[in-house]
Structure formats: structure tokens, C-alpha cells
Amino acid sequence: MNNIKKEILEIVGACDLAFASTINWENFPETRALVNDLNKKIADIANLYFTSDIDSPKVEQIKKNSCASLYYFVPKTMKNMTLFGKFKLVTDKSLKDALWRDEFSKYYENGKEDEKYCVLNFIPTGYKYYTFKNGDYSKNEGNF
């Protein structure tokens, strides 16, 4: 694995939250926090997963325009990163079942069978991240 992907995985793994921006009905970015638990121990950056209520405005926005970005920030190290890419709704029941966590039950009363349980798959196509060392910021950006 190259150093850039390793650095990106370290940033993703260090964050409890990711801030997702989607395009709203008036063509403006709309940002919200997403719990990052499903991505804290991943070995590859090709697919990131998040849960959501199927009736949320975010899901409706993704259905209309799947282009999005995820922003991660690690306060302790001042590292921050934006991933650019597209969201898709996961329809594969076996994958949804594999990603299910018991703690999700507080949001979905019928468990993983709940109609409102939705899994979003973010597929990054590009990145921009900054690291802070010795008083200087260093920027890296590119495509996957």
C-alpha cells in the first residue's frame, strides 16, 4: 500500500465522525455529521459505509445527485481530509446484514429487517488532505 493511502486510512480510522456534503434541492451543498464506526478498521479506502434512515433528506438528495464529499478532521494532529466521490444505496441484503451492529437497534426498532434501515456506500474517486508538522501545513491531492 502506498503512503498516501496509508495516511488516508489513518485519518479515517482516527475519526468518530465524517462530515458528508450532498447537493440539496436548491443546488447548494448541505453538510451533516455521519457516525464513522463502520470505517474505523478498514484495510482499503475503495468503499466506505454509513447507516441512515431511508426517509432522511440526505437519502433523497443522494437519489437525485450521488456526487458528494466526506470531510474528516483529527484535532489532536490537525490532520484533515476531504474525499470526493459518489454515494450509492446498498440493496444487497447480505451486505446490509454483515454491516448491522446491535447498537443500531436504538434507531431501528425492527432490527436489520426494519424498512427504515439504509446503508450508504461512499466510493471515493479523489482526495485532498493536509498534515501539520513543525508549524507547516503540507497538502496532498489526487485521484484514486
Mean pLDDT: 95
Tell me the number of structural domains. Answer: 1
List low-pLDDT spans.
Answer: none
Under the CATH scheme, which architecture would be assigned?
A: Roll
What does the secondary structure layout of this molecule look like, with pairings?
Elements: H1 3-14, E1 17-23, E2 29-35, E3 48-53, H2 57-64, E4 67-74, E5 79-89, H3 93-99, E6 117-133, E7 136-143
Antiparallel strand pairs: 1-2, 1-4, 3-6, 4-5, 5-6, 6-7
Summarize the structure.
The chain is an alpha+beta fold and 144 residues long.
What does this structure look like?
With 144 residues, the protein is of the alpha+beta class. It has one domain: Electron Transport, Fmn-binding Protein, Chain A (Pnp Oxidase, Chain A, Roll), CATH 2.30.110. It has three helices and seven strands. Strands 1, 2, 3, 4, 5, 6 and 7 form a seven-stranded antiparallel beta sheet that branches. Strand 6 (117-133) and strand 7 (136-143) form a beta hairpin. The radius of gyration is 16 Å and the shape is globular.
